[in-house]
Amino acid sequence: DWQAGEQLANKSDPWVEGVKLVLKQFAGILKNHGIEEIKTVGEMFNPELHEAVGEEEVEG
């Protein structure tokens, strides 16, 4: 998860800053190759874009 490190975002530790820089560069490389994150939070499930990894039963 790319956002897992957001908890560390406000720390000024040189190691954390280095990791954030590497992630930013890696995301740029992926984008240059046409690979981008698919925004799905809050959207309806679309089987053409999304892959179900689980199922949850609800009443109603």
From TrEMBL:
Its protein name is Nucleotide exchange factor GrpE
Per the record, the coiled-coil ranges are none
Q: Report the InterPro entries cross-referenced here.
A: GrpE, GrpE_head
- State the species of origin: Candidatus Magasanikbacteria bacterium RIFOXYC2_FULL_40_16
- Cite the entry's keywords alphabetically: Chaperone
For this entry, list what GO says about its biological process: protein folding
Q: Which domain of life is it from?
A: Bacteria
Q: Which GO terms describe its molecular function?
A: adenyl-nucleotide exchange factor activity; protein homodimerization activity; protein-folding chaperone binding
